[in-house]
Design brief:
Elements: H1 10-14, E1 20-23, H2 32-44, H3 53-64, H4 70-75, H5 81-95, H6 103-120, H7 127-136, E2 141-144, H8 149-158, E3 166-168, H9 180-190, E4 197-201, H10 204-213, E5 217-221, E6 233-235, H11 238-252
Parallel strand pairs: 1-2, 1-4, 2-3, 4-5, 5-6
Helix pairs in contact: 2-3, 2-6, 3-5, 7-11
The chain binds magnesium ion.
């Protein structure tokens, strides 16, 4: 856990306790980055013969980390979901001086990629124990995510994550994160007060700033030690968050 500089007293901030927890899904609960890297490798190996394994690794990471900045354009309604994926693939090919795929080849590629990536979706190891702890404390939880609700519900189920009665997608509340609307919709469906609801995510802007602007208590999950969200309570993993919530509950008893 990073130094909190004595500015964040978890127990004090929580006052009468935590009423609920809302989570980001991608790269907070589900290890989407690893799934994307694995699927990308499997789908370009034959196409990019002659490219060194080191450069393949770099472009796979760039694709997964969206070096093209395409997902924001999807959220802004400028391109489709498949369109943003194509922009990321085109950039990867360009980085190794390779011609982009034709439209038809891309559509076949995208179909193969989608099948592989879905098979690779899995939660981080600390997720199931954390959700079990929340349930044991009677704390309800849900998800607020920047992708279509039906797709994200399917992702949770395929990742073996049940118990999410509340799932807010980018299409559920009329605007994606960091707009306050999806956070407030999550609290409303969870029937919790925003000021007593934790929002747990890995993106400093969409998750941390968005949740804080909506009046929730943001928790930044910094799995890769990026130290990118200075304002929020930061944890390295959900095991640390379980311990913090446990302490906060004990301090109220
Ligand atoms: Mg995320």
């Amino acid at each position: 856990m990073r130094e909190l500089g004595n500015t964040f007293d978890f127990s004090t901030r929580l006052g009468g306790g935590i009423e609920g927890v809302l989570f980001d899904i991608d790269d907070t609960l589900v290890d989407l980055r690893s799934a994307a890297i694995d699927a990308f490798h499997a789908m370009v190996d034959d196409l990019l013969e002659g490219v060194t394994s080191e450069r393949l690794r770099l472009i796979a990471e760039d694709f997964a980390d969206d070096g093209a900045g395409a997902y924001e354009r999807y959220m802004a309604g400028e391109v489709t979901f498949l369109g943003q994926r194509q922009l990321r693939l085109n950039r990867a090919f360009e980085l190794v001086e390779h011609k982009p795929l034709s439209e038809q080849s891309y559509l076949r590629w995208a179909e193969g990629y989608e099948t592989l990536v879905k098979d690779s979706w899995k939660p981080f190891d600390d997720v199931l124990p954390h959700l079990a702890a929340l349930s044991s404390w009677g704390i309800p939880y849900g998800a607020v995510s920047n992708n279509v609700e039906a797709y994200q519900r399917m992702k949770l189920v395929r990742s073996g994550l049940s118990g999410f009665a509340v799932v807010i997608g980018s299409d559920t509340a009329g605007a994606p994160k960091p707009d306050p609307a999806p956070f407030l919709a999550g609290c409303s469906q969870l029937q919790t007060a925003p000021g007593r609801t934790l929002y747990v995510g890995d993106n400093p802007i969409n998750d941390v700033q968005g949740a804080e602007n909506a009046g929730l208590i943001a928790i930044f999950v910094d799995r890769e030690s990026k130290h990118a969200a200075q304002s929020a309570l930061t944890v390295s993993n959900l095991e640390q968050l379980t311990a913090l919530i446990g302490q906060s509950i004990n301090s109220l008893e």
